[in-house]
Design brief:
Blueprint lengths: L5 E4 L4 H12 L6 E4 H9 L8 E7 L6 H6 L4 E3 L6 E4 L2 E8 L12 H16 L1 E7 L5 E6 L2 H14 L6 H18 L4 H7 L5 H15 L1 H8 L4 H4 L3 H24 L1
Parallel strand pairs: 1-7, 3-6
Antiparallel strand pairs: 2-3, 4-5, 5-6, 7-8
Helix pairs in contact: 2-6, 4-5, 5-6, 5-7, 5-8, 6-9, 7-11, 8-9, 8-11, 9-11
């Protein structure tokens, strides 16, 4: 495949991740998208923060089941910590399934459930190929990667869905991912335009979650960041809000436009 972005990921820890990603790409999973920390690093073009596993979303309508397919790979084994996890050369791969849906299928779901279901399906539907290259040149993989807007939407769900006990560091990572994507990739409005183009009701719940996390409760989000490293701890309430305001304005404007049609 040619023409896809080529991202070199530095650090010794990236080589086994890239090798595992290459096996996932060649496994015959059908439609899939890499999400989580690897996707963030790919979109930012750097090893943004420490990550030791790979998260992916797959189309549940594509047989055979993804976990069964991955377990047939050489050096693959079941992860005893969960039925949706596989170890490939020691790298944990977590699979989340999604299915196509109509807006009417979301009736009766909470906003948090809509955000989870909608953002993960959107991540699968909108993913684009990226070639990941380990810095030492020993491994590369062309994989389907979630877009920046899809990552933001999924992280807005994850940060509020973490369990209170032991979830502070995870929340710090979620907040840092959102902050860096908006800071680095939305300078020309690419991320806000992607989010503004989301279908309802996903756009509506993304706007509501973004307002809570980045505006109304920005001080709480900053407190999570302070549980991370020194770079995360330097982010202020004003920093978060300044990045969020134009994004939320674009979502609000898109909602007004759709109501006029």
């Amino acid at each position: 495949m040619s023409g896809e972005p080529r991202i070199v990921l530095p650090g010794a820890a990236m080589a086994p991740l890239v090798q595992a990603a290459a096996k996932i790409a060649d496994a015959g999973l059908g439609r899939y998208a890499v999400i989580g920390g690897v996707a963030v690093s790919a979109r930012l073009g750097q090893a943004h923060r420490a990550t030791a596993d790979i998260d992916a979303v797959v189309d549940d309508a594509t047989p055979p089941p993804a976990v069964e397919t991955l377990l047939e790979l050489p050096q693959a084994e079941a992860d005893p910590t969960g039925p949706h996890r596989v170890l490939i050369d020691g790298i944990k791969v977590e699979i989340q399934g999604t299915e196509p849906f109509e807006s009417s299928d979301l009736d009766g779901l909470t906003d948090k459930q809509i955000l989870y279901v909608g953002s993960h399906r959107y991540a699968l539907d909108s993913a684009t190929p990226v070639t990941l290259v380990a810095e030492d040149g020993g491994a590369q993989a062309t994989v389907q990667i979630a877009t920046p807007g899809a990552i933001v939407a999924m992280k807005l769900h994850a940060i509020e869905d973490r369990r209170p006990s032991g979830g502070m560091d995870k929340r710090a990572g979620d907040a840092w991912d959102i902050y860096r994507i908006l800071l680095d990739l939305d300078r020309d409005g690419i991320v806000r335009r992607e989010l503004a183009a989301l279908p309802q009701p996903l756009r509506q719940v993304v706007a509501a979650a973004g307002t809570r996390i980045l505006i109304d409760r920005a001080a709480r989000t900053v407190s999570w960041l302070k549980a991370g490293d020194e770079r995360m701890a330097r982010v202020t309430v004003e920093d978060l809000r300044s990045l969020a305001v134009p994004v939320l304005a674009a979502l609000d404007e898109a909602g007004d436009d759709s109501s006029d049609r």
